[in-house]
Write a structure and sequence with these properties.
The chain is mainly alpha-helical. The chain has three helices and two strands.
Length: 111
C-alpha cells in the first residue's frame, strides 16, 4: 500500500518545519490499484496464516495416527493446492510470500 506523508502545519523560513514534516503520520493513498492490492494482501495473509495452521494440525494428527492414509493424502493435496492458489493470486497483484508476513511491531512477524 502506497502512503504519503501528511502535510505539515508547522512553519519556519521555508514555510514547513523539517522536523515536523519528518514525523508526520503516514496517510493512506486511495488510488484504485493500491486499494485492490492492499485488500488482496490482507485477504491472502489471512488465508496463508490459516493454511499454515491447518498444515500444523494435519501434521500433529498424522503423528498421532488419527488420520487414515487416504485422509493424509487428501489433506496434503488440498493444502498444496491452496498454497499454489495463494501464490498465483499474489503474483497477479505483485505480492511475494514475504509481503504476506505482516510486521506486528513489538510482537514481531505474524508468521
Amino acid at each position: 500500500m502506497r502512503s504519503e506523508r501528511a502535510p505539515s502545519t508547522g512553519s519556519r523560513q521555508g514555510g514547513v518545519s523539517r522536523s515536523r514534516r519528518d514525523t508526520a503520520p503516514l496517510r493512506w493513498n486511495p488510488e484504485p490499484d493500491d486499494v485492490q492490492r492492499s485488500v488482496a494482501q490482507l485477504v491472502l495473509t489471512i488465508v496463508e496464516f490459516l493454511r499454515q495452521l491447518m498444515e500444523r494440525q494435519a501434521i500433529r494428527r498424522m503423528e498421532q495416527k488419527t488420520l487414515t492414509p487416504k485422509e493424509v493424502e487428501a489433506v496434503g493435496i488440498a493444502l498444496m493446492r491452496l498454497e499454489e492458489t495463494v501464490k498465483d493470486i499474489g503474483k497477479r497483484f505483485g505480492l511475494t510470500p514475504e509481503d504476506l508476513n505482516l510486521d506486528l511491531g513489538p510482537l514481531g512477524k505474524l508468521m
